[in-house]
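# nightly structure sweep
# worker-07 picked up a monomer target from the shared queue
# config: single-sequence mode, recycle default, output format = structure tokens
# input follows
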Amino acid sequence: VFPPVSKLDPAMYGPPESSITERHISGQLNGLTVQEAIDKEKLFIVDHHDVYMPFLDRINAIEGRKAYATRAIFFLTQGGTLKPIAIELSLPPAQSGEPQPSKVLTPACDATSNWIWMLGKAHVSSNDAGVHQLVNHWLRTHAIMEPFILAAHRRMSAMHPIFKLLHPHMRYTLEINALARQSLINAEGVIESCFTPGPVSGEISSAYYRNHWRFDLEGLPADLLRRGVAVEDATQPHGIRLLIEDYPYANDGLLLWSAIGNWVESYVQLYYPDAGTVQSDDELQEWYHESIHVGHADLRDAPWWPPLSTPRDLANILTTLVWLASAQHAALNFGQYPLGGYVPNRPPLMRRLLPDPERDAAEYAMFLADPHRFFLNAMPGVLEATKFMAVVDTLSTHSPDEEYLGESLDEGAAPWTGDEEALAAHGMFAADVRRAEETIERRNADHGRRNRCGAGVLPYELLAPSSPPGVTCRGVPNSISI
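# output follows
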């Protein structure tokens, strides 16, 4: 839909239509009209408007915090890269139902507007950093895995074949989540003190869980479809076609998704040859029932929970859980310091709104006199930035005892299973993971892939399975262990 439309209540937040018009972006579309660009699958949006708008009054009342509800529109170029072509920055209406005060920024053609464009990009990046940390990282991996892990320990014997399958993917997760509650996501903890949402951080996470999270859409192909970066295509290996051909996360993720799916399906078939064996396994059924009805009790009546009646049902559920615990968490977590440790590149919070001569003429004069200083003063302060850098450095670090996807599960310990067929299936999985890593290395050396290879472009290694200890911007551990 163009212009983009909010789903918030117009009686409270005003007219739902975005302020971005065809006039703002028509000159950036290589001769296409907006409708032609949409029809040709060339326009993309990062839309955090509805995530932040309900909380902006409270965020902006905090000393040293300033935020907008943001939208950013990108054009897919002939080279396969995304070019930002418009940014919308909105504030809450002065009175319920009135139009929202908003600014639309477009790529600059003079020095002053270039500094404004940079500040606009910083606000979009700051909002994106908050959603990344609170929704995609904490909620959609750490938090939603916890009920499945607790229920597995409570409802399944350690000798149960599905417990054995899940065991390496549950390692350290409850411990790291407990530590997060003590010092990261707690009131006045690191997340509240270092990220734009501050004390409403938990509410943003909860609102997404309540209104948007769905277990059946957390697998990679379903998530790519939901986010509009892929379309269904029965001729493709995973049943989807990517709209951005050079999309490193999706390209590499689908390799690991496929390897995990084949491994899980082979393993499940060894123990559950038909629907009757799934339905009559009391431990398995109690595990899944408790995961939903106790662990995800707020959503227990949602119609989208997958059934657990057939071997295919079981394999799909387990593939999603293993994906979330391993590859998805790795993609979200281990690039945080390499990509965000330089704070101006991706500020976790902003301290100033855009300079506006009508709102504050003196501030605007300061901006014109020294735009560089104004930009840096809009970034987090030294204490906030240092704390943030220290935390994301720790989060991005692999421990020396990390266990990675596809590695042997028996090193220095008793065999995880005595079943030779299961061991053979895991050996095939390990070979698939090694092949995926070799493919990723070749892709990173391919100069035709401009989103992962080129001058100043980091190779995309977040889904390369192996890694030495330390901050490496690569490596896929079996579990959420940091």
